[in-house]
């Protein structure tokens, strides 16, 4: 931070995200130099990392509780490019650079899981850095969001179970069948999961009470030292009454359970199905039929459990007219403003007339110094309009 305060500041102007792997990102870097710097490089870096962290409590009867931190990280992307090189010193002023680059393909979506003293994340950012030959530095990081492109989902599917009902683990109470069907195996945070349940207790000696469905997840954080931590939670639950006597239901009777993901949209926007090196999150649905009776054995209850994928909302890359106009204004505005200021600075600092008859940059004899640059500074500043 001391370097930023001493030598200047950097600002980004980026196209509106989120972005997908393989997409081109365009933007501007606006550098405000407050103190003269030695010959320097301007570098743009795109970086992405997967990280896990959790804190283990170690209790002791004879002393205070100790804490042991676990976690690891893995690089998902790292691209660095030199945008510009100043051969001479950089003088105080404002320097504007345009840039563009292509994101690497098949990047996992940005991700965030937070619990008590634990975190799992996938984070991407762009970093701009001006660093001189004597390690004078100005640094700025900008976080960006990456999402997966729209993907196809598997179609309708069905899951069945047949429970042999027993009480006291020895008394036979017949058989109850539970069949579950869904239209898809993948959902985004704006959708509803519609579960159709078919119940058949025509061979059961026990009546039914209710049908429940819930969406749960298992989050596994891992480390390269072979340690791990698991977090389990139920996100959404619905319970509907289903009070029927024994042998009253057959496969012609269907019940509908609706799990609305909008209830947790903000959470699921950044916490989706993912199987990585140090982060592994698994979503599943559990449907349970409650039957009447006492001392029922746990192994004989009609329960269906199956995986489901939570995916980021699909995005469609459509240029925003207002955003495009904004970039055009910034481009042209920087050109005109910097041209005017550079001429004034040159006159003030060097005592020369740098405006030729054609309104181009030049010395008093008409020799051009720079006719394509965008900067406000002294005459020995280099060209600052670089695209790659």
TrEMBL record:
It holds the Pfam family Arrestin_N. It comes from the Eukaryota. Residues 9-147 form the Arrestin-like N-terminal domain. GO terms for cellular component: cytoplasm. Residues 173-313 form the Arrestin C-terminal-like domain. InterPro entries: Arrestin-like_C (IPR014752), Arrestin-like_N (IPR011021), Arrestin_C-like (IPR011022), Arrestin_domain-protein (IPR050357), Ig_E-set (IPR014756). GO terms for biological process: protein transport. This is Uncharacterized protein.
